[in-house]
Amino acid sequence: MKKYLIAGLGNIGLEYRNTRHNIGFKVVDHLAEKHNVTFTTQKLGDIAELKHKGRTFILLKPSTYMNLSGKAVRYWLEKEKIPVENLLVVTDDLNLAFGTIRIKSKGSDGGHNGLKDIQLQLGTTTYARFRFGISNDFAKGKQVDYVLGQWTEDEEKLLTERLEKSAEAVLSFGLAGINITMNSFNNK
């Protein structure tokens, strides 16, 4: 059975639960809830195992905080013997309009500290990443407040549909592969 590690990035703690920066947690939470699997706290994160159409998806919410996500990602890749090409990292992106999905098979960290640490820990930029647009609707100098801020009422209304589309994209990554997933979901 093919295994995939789906690492949803975010920060632990109630104060971060519903923030834009925690969209990675929200995506894997939605996927787990939809398929009736639960997370358990294990080494370096919360883990849920989802079996779907002959594939195993290990859902990871690192407990290392966003900026040190690479340690948890590397540990779970090694522990589960998952090749890096079966890794998908789900994170927020300020440079994309709210709810926009952008999936790539490799690339730079784009200034994202979570991706920067994963790149450092894995020694490569060749791993799939799923960027969820949170837009950049903030005043100069207010980026941290915006990213760590709560969703607006309008964003909350649209979030359910966007999470559903995100869950479909994650499963497509494991079932159809990165190229078909990029063609089917990017900018949708």
Question: Your description of this structure?
Answer:
With 188 residues, the protein is of the alpha/beta class. It has a single domain, classed as Peptidyl-tRNA hydrolase (Rossmann fold, 3-Layer(aba) Sandwich), CATH 3.40.50. The chain contains six helices and seven strands, in the order E-H-E-E-E-H-E-E-H-E-H-H-H. The protein has a seven-stranded mixed sheet with strand order 2-3-4-1-5-7-6. The chain is globular.
| CA-CA gap between termini | 30 Å
Approximate shape: globular
Q: Helix/strand/pairing class, anyone?
A: alpha/beta
Please tell me how large the radius of gyration is: 15 Å
Output the CATH topology: Rossmann fold
For the record, the CATH class is Alpha Beta
Query: Which residues form runs of ≥5 with pLDDT under 50?
Result: none
Number of domains: 1
Spatial order of strands in the largest sheet: 2-3-4-1-5-7-6
Helix content: 25-40%
Pfam family, one: Pept_tRNA_hydro
Organism: Capnocytophaga cynodegmi
Subunit structure: Monomer.
InterPro entries: Pept_tRNA_hydro, Pept_tRNA_hydro_CS, Pept_tRNA_hydro_sf
List its salient traits.
6 helices, alpha/beta, 7 strands, 188 residues, seven-stranded mixed beta sheet, Rossmann fold, single chain
